[in-house]
Amino acid sequence: MKEQGTIRLYKENEKYGFIVNPKAKPGDKSDFHFRKMDLRTENWIPQKGEDVTYELVKTDKGWNARNVSKLVATNKTIPTRPSANPSNPSPSQAHAPFNFVPLNETVVPGEDAKGTLTGFIELEITAETPLYVRNTLTVEKYGEKEALREENPKKPYLGNPDFFQPGGLFRLPGSSLRGMVRTLVEIIGHGSFRFFDDKATLSPSCSNTVANHVPSELTAKGLDLAKKIFGDLNSKPSRVFFEDAFLENGNPEKPSEKRVPKILSTPKPAACRLYLEQSAAPNLCACCRRIRGYKLYWHKSARNWEDTRKSPAYLESPHSRDTQHTILCPMEAQSVFSGRIRFEGLTSVELGCLLFALDLPEGCCHKIGMGKPLGLGSIHVEPKLFLSDRKKRYATLEREWQSPPPTKEQDEYKSRFAQYLLKLAYSRESDSETSWKELWKTDRMKELKRLLAFEPGSSPDGRPKDREIQYMSRRDFQPSSLLPRPTEVG
């Protein structure tokens, strides 16, 4: 029996592709693999988005497509995405403080080589906007919390508003830095898409779980670059170790003031309209769409993040019944932290991937901590690479008692990683010393670069205006609203 579908991906060099069936029923498989030998027309190279007919054949790996041929053209209009124009917004345009880096088409495996590079990367981290990581509870604070609960169980507990400072020393936790960097390594390294709730659904009206919206080829087991570097729970230990980044020049002379941020828990539009790939075809069932990709928050000016109608004193008073607001003591912009990443036994490609994720293009920043949708947590990271000579280290007693001089080969390692990725993900050979710049010019990396842009400006190098990337109210949201790609905003 012949089926109709659309080419989602075809790699001529590797002689395989995938067909998606937009009419598949909820819960049914809608993505089918085919090989070049399954094409009925000789010398035909299928193109992404091309309509085809095919037959389904069951193999030992599941249902695959066979006898793939072009669908006879009909007079139909191909839906297109509306261009974003925030100065004159239309009902079909959605906006949000987040957007998505598109999914990679294939998973790039980690380098099959033994790593010999050991050393550390010093980090100088400058806060470009107010920055906040909540502090832990001391024994005394925990006792106060329990006493308040016993005295008045209905009184909401606001937590410890202080900035993270175990032992009284202000710092960014190494675990937060590790999570921030690993996310970027998974994105830029074309890793597997694994961190999602496979039992959750995006819409009450659809029985499909999140896992049904993720292509099976992106959830395959194996060691990608991220797993090779950061380790895998069942098979490989981590080879990178993130230390806390301490506030330079000691603690501030006076403690940060208590402040109340705007709440983020107001009703939001249906998530499935924003989190799944979209087209201008409103009748396309959400169950047949892929997840959009990796979610990241835009950078903002952070000029208007406080809720001036609420005071910390009122929220802390016994009369307050406010369960939506919180209190925090952020570090101000231009605060500087110093930290270190130690690494052992990395290959040149793996070290290049790590440096590529840390050393962003000019005008781009990372995000860390709480309040990202409000513009908090934008940081600029300046990495310096130090390599250890293990032979000399163990041959001389005083070797490396002090830090060795920084390595001037950072861009060289970044280019080795870029050459590796360009070859395996894009089938492009490159031996340029600036291959890392070529990688930033690929379509997918352009979307990432736009999301990382901190300096305001037009696409593709600057970030949008704050009003163009704020949450939509339910009143403004329309059922046909489409969220543009990052490079289409502003």
Would you give an account of this structure?
- The chain folds into 2 domains: 2-70, OB fold (Dihydrolipoamide Acetyltransferase, E2P) (Beta Barrel); 98-488, no CATH class.
- Helix content is 19%, strand content 18%.
- It has 10 helices and 14 strands.
- Strands 7, 8, 9, 10, 12, 13 and 14 form a 7-stranded antiparallel beta sheet that branches. It has a 5-stranded antiparallel beta sheet with strand order 3-2-1-4-5, with no helix packed on it. Strands 6-11 form a two-stranded antiparallel sheet.
- Helix 2 (174-188) packs across helix 6 (348-358) and helix 6 (348-358) packs across helix 8 (410-426).
- It is globular and about 75 Å long.
- The model is unreliable at 73-89 (pLDDT under 50).
